[in-house]
Amino acid sequence: MSQLQFFLALIAGGLSAIALALSLITPFEQGLLLKAFLALGVVSLLRFVVPMGPWADGVLAVLGATALLTSLEVFAPAPPYFWLALTVTWLFAWLFVERLSHTLAPRLSDNAGLGLLIPVMFGAALLVVWEVVTRGANVPPVLLPAPSMIGAQLVNSAPILWADFVQTFIKSVLPGYAIGCLSGLAVAILVDRSPFLKAGLLPIGNFMSALPIIGIAPIMVMWFGFDWQSKAAVVVAMTFFPMLVNTVAGLNASSAIERDLMRTYAANYWQTLMKLRLPAAGPFIFNALKINSTLALIGAIVAEFFGTPVVGMGFRISTGVGRLAIDLVWAEIAVAAIAGSAFYGVIALIERGVTFWHPSVRGGRA
Q1: Residues 193 and 339 both lie in one domain
Q2: Would 48 be classed as within a structural domain?
Q3: For the domain that residue 223 is a member of, what is the CATH number?
Q4: Largest CB tally within 10 Å, which of 157, 179, 190, 346?
């Protein structure tokens, strides 16, 4: 057990004892499951005498989350030991993830399924804390709705959310992303061929990439109209220069010895480019693709604030805030987050298949 794990276990058990003592002033049958969880938290201190596996901490975290969620309807307002129990639950979840990551670290690359358990557990813990705090502290929904309210809105407004997703992601993000990345890659190869373009175009590219999106978006709307074409144009402007800069850097990643070897084989420029320099630039190109996967979605959503048909994620967010439909706004944010994460994940999976030879993909092993 590491020093951090030792302190997490000690603090979790100590706070469980304090919370259990405070809970004794309430009727015995009130919050019975929560009190049982706290009692088990005190018992977990026996780990310093008898070894206790990481899965026991995971079970305690799940039990604590269940007890907290079922106790929300019981307490009004929530007593102090309720909030201590929330802290204890978070500590057990943290301890479980910490111990599990140390246990799986040597074989995470061989067992990606178990590796996914760590971010899933962490995300679930965040959602539980969010739900408990917003409902237990009676936070007004207009300030921050509970995840349960957002989930209900996702179900009830599924047709609206789907239409917004199609308008923003399918029609605007994907075409703009493809055009911006492909054109950036093509121009990078031209820049690599011409020292004049390398000296003259790259500084302009850096300048253009620093332009604020709120300045570009209204201009694109005036040029290309209010439909998805103007949003795709914004995405092209946002994704072009990251791809250009990263690809130019990647094309220079191959060593002089490798290029000399290609010359000894009488390889011309295009043969060297296709067989050596582009494969060596693969990690740089995929780095730009992953960066652009998030930039493209942000650009399309922000561009919709400056003019769009009555559909789209940006349109729905701006009108939802004006109508104080905050749960719908958060539902749109959730859809955007899921779409962006899935898009990023697909690119990362393709990267693992294409650049399998690179140390970053092989886990740094020689």
Answers
A1: yes
A2: yes
A3: 1.10.3720.10
A4: 157
Same domain, 64 and 90: yes
Report the alpha-carbon angle 186-192-197, nearest 5. Answer: 90
Residues 277 and 203 in one domain: yes
Q: Is residue 365 part of a domain?
A: no
In the prediction, which pLDDT does 179 show? 93
Domain count, the chain: 2
d(CA 179, CA 172): 11
pLDDT digits (tens, 9 = 90+) for 338-358: 999 899 989 988 888 887 776
pTM: 0.78
